[in-house]
Amino acid sequence: MTHAADPDSAYLLGHSSTETDRLLLQDRPYDPITEQPLLTAGLRPGMRALDVGCGAGDVTFLAARIVGSTGSVTGVDAAPRALEVARARAAGRKRDQAGDAEISFRPVTLPDVTIDLGGPVGAVIGRLILGHLPDLVMALRRLSRPVRPGGLVVFQDLADVPLRGEPPTPLNGAVLEGIGAARTVNGSGPGEDARLYPLFRRAGPTAPALSATTPMGGAEGDTVPPLVVTHAERQVL
Fold first, then answer.
1. Measured between alpha carbons, how far is residue 87 from residues 54, 68, 185, 224 in Å?
2. For residue 214, which of 30, 14, 3, 4 has the smallest C-alpha distance?
3. Residue 79 reports pLDDT greater than 60
4. Given CA atoms 27, 42, 156, 104 in this order, what sign does their dihedral have?
5. Which of 66, 70, 74, 87 is nearest to 126 (CA)?
6. Are strands 48-52 and 72-77 parallel, antiparallel or unpaired?
7. Are strands 147-156 and 121-127 parallel, antiparallel or unpaired?
8. CA-to-CA distance for 237 and 234, rounded, in angstroms?
9. What are the chain's domains?
10. Mean pLDDT on 162-178
11. Model pTM greater than 0.90?
């Protein structure tokens, strides 16, 4: 698999414009199943949230709709190109009409969040970022530092289950194989998701709550085919 990774960044897939486009496509199947965990965890109107590894801002915008006009969301990422896209998208939104929160985007190199946020936040959130952080316990402790006592730490990531398509096809099989291989680059291996509970337990004093949801789709939809093709373009077969 090819990528233009930044040596100072934990993100394995790089920060090219192609990767930003892929993230925008990826939001289509994931956005509907990201909102519910945020609500279940307790994200609510009026809260200040920090979206780590925000990319082009999809989870930031989702959180902004939840916390509403009395809240705020800061998205942070190491990719200048992604942040440019996120800021442009934010500028094009009709905040007053939508009732969204105040939104800002700032550069950081994860897992360190050393920027001044003007005080603690009520929630740190992130989607599909934990798999890019090699020392998860250390990373969770650092990412949790901005959270006020009693606040939320909410992450959504890939479960370590076999990825497959029915019926099998050469292209789909190659893409899924590439995704599985990419997830082992930072040292992760089979059963890594089963270790999330004890890893989270070691990272903080509060016992975590975990759940699993599986997005599914077919070739007739407008989300899966473009995403599969984009994944294929990122690979050398």
1. 11, 18, 30, 26
2. 30
3. yes
4. positive
5. 74
6. parallel
7. parallel
8. 10
9. 17-161+190-213 (3.40.50.150)
10. 70
11. no
